[in-house]
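[Q] Does anyone have a clean structure-token version of this?
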Amino acid sequence: MSEKTRCKWAGNIPIYIDYHDNEWGRPVHDDMKLFEMFILEGMQAGLAWITVLNKREAFRLAFDGFDPKKVALYDDTKFQQLMANEKIIRNRLKIHAAVNNARLFLMVAEEYSSFDKFLWGYVNDTPITGHWQKHEDMPVSTPLSDKISKDLKKMGFKFVGSTIIYSFMQAIGMVNDHTTDCFVYKELL
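[A] Here you go.
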């Protein structure tokens, strides 16, 4: 039995391989999972994704299972607890953004009946398929991620630049940017 061909970025690190094989690029429509990825992508800004993956379980505990209803209610006491938690990324602006974004996430979800409906409306509920032979050929942002970023910023969301949003779109399967030789690329077609 031959080894599966994966996107080169998955390398040979088990946590990356698991994330690549089972999550990245697979369509997500559950609001709780969308919120988790939204928060994690914002936390990743300026850092390597492996840093976030390694701290993911600590984030899950610290952020009440990524429940936006709970995160939206965080006060200064909870903020100070998060800032003191050495197991997560302790960036003041990113933590404030997570709480702010939770509140806005819930407002959008209420207005559109779910955050999923709002977000996936940008692609008419159909993932965009990239046709990249090499990871280096992929864009870091697109006109669509520019538009979503601009719309989110107008609503008051933080840490939603176009590059972060494009990475989020890839992570939640709005975009299939697995390389064309990758087994997941073929599964998602």
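[Q] Thanks! Anything notable?
[A] The first strand starts at residue 128 and ends at 129.
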